[in-house]
Amino acid sequence: MTPQTLFDKIWNSHVVRSIEGGPEVLYIDRHYIHEVTSPQAFDGLRARGIKVLRPQRTLATADHNIPTRDQHLPIRDELSRTQVSTLEKNCSEFGIEYFGLGHPKNGIVHVIGPELGYTLPGMTIVCGDSHTSTHGAFGAIAFGIGTSEVEMVLASQCILQVKPKTMRIKVNGRLGKGVTAKDLILYIISRISSGGATGYFVEYSGAAITSMSMEERMTVCNMSIEMGARGGLIAPDHTTYSYLNKIPSVSNKPEFKSMLLRWRILKSDEGAVFDRELEFDGSEIKPMITYGTNPGMGMGIDEAIPENDLSPSFMKALDYMGFTPGLKLIGHRIDYVFVGSCTNGRIEDLRAFACLVKGRKKAPGVTALIVPGSKKVEIQAHNEGITKTLEDAGFELRQPGCSSCLAMNEDKVPPGKYAVSTSNRNFEGRQGPGARTLLASPLTAAAAAVTGCITDPRELLND
Known about the structure:
Blueprint: H1 6-14, E1 15-18, E2 24-27, E3 30-33, H2 39-48, E4 58-61, H3 78-94, E5 97-99, H4 109-115, E6 124-127, E7 141-144, H5 147-156, E8 158-161, E9 165-172, H6 181-192, E10 200-205, H7 207-210, H8 214-222, E11 231-233, H9 238-245, H10 248-251, H11 256-263, E12 276-281, E13 288-290, E14 298-300, H12 312-321, E15 336-339, H13 341-344, H14 347-357, E16 367-370, H15 375-383, H16 386-392, E17 418-421, E18 436-439, H17 442-451, H18 457-462
Parallel strand pairs: 3-4, 3-6, 4-5, 6-7, 9-10, 9-12, 10-11, 15-16, 15-17, 17-18
Antiparallel strand pairs: 1-2, 2-8, 13-14
Helix pairs in contact: 2-5, 6-8, 14-16, 14-17
């Protein structure tokens, strides 16, 4: 038998039909929806007079366009209020499980799916959101889809897709002190560019990857999209099984032991051929920060902005950011700090931030938005004393939501202001019209929050 990649194994087992000279009909195990990309899809079903084929395979939550304060009150913004109420009505009409504001299972779709046990190894998973690749951390094929495709999956539980090429990125060695999963993926993107994986589905491997927790793996897979990949995945292992074993809805299944046996074959075979392979040394990675307007414009935090690219697009990005070639960012004043999003809104991210700010105070003039990725994370932060640590340092833990990851809700960064953000995108206007975003890890965000400027977190960790 020809050796297969992990991607091939999952993909091939879900192909319902191959269309000669065209795409394949792929069966979808899990479909996540939210309030922004689903309304037109439901309207399309009504117009055609059809129902959702398998509503139990779809899960809905409100996350993108919701406030992160006073969630017990009616949503003030009319558009947001309409979107959320429309999602609730659509889910009620079509029989879909829905976690709305205030629900104990509410949160960002790519946070609650894994933590509640809806995301499992070997699955095919889609959502009308590009960062669906997050779920690939469990050894699943997960990717974002458009609104017309959301309707397609609701109607048929299948989707038409052209099979992507495969890439393996191996990261050897160990990460240094103060270097996180976020730094690792920003480093990779800076090395291969924001378009370097276009057309590929990426499998991550190597000691630096396998030593990561599930939450760290989710951060890496989440940002696969930012280098152009269709998605990213990591083979399930003991770390994966241990994580799932702690979720009662998974471990209490009568078939859990047989599921474990099936999951153990979910790995690339020895000798499997990838269309492209890359290799990096994890020990060479430093805490990272971006300086431009795409995630590929990143560098080690103690380095200088490159001077070897003076192209119009490069200079346009620097002009937007107010930077120049050769500039070092250490010591540069910042205005906002955002910790959260589907990239870094999990409990380990809040722990890291709280660990560094403990015993320190928020810098004057800094606005900080610390936003948990779910109600479960919010409650856990309270129970672990993280909320108290944040309050003692002058911070406030907000309520769950996508928040400042994107300028779609109240948590916008004002024009011209600098924000050190743990989210995934730094495009022009991503966090608000004219906002200047510097992507970084929760540790680097914490260092900036207590010093008021871009600071190497390793200096404060040494303290």
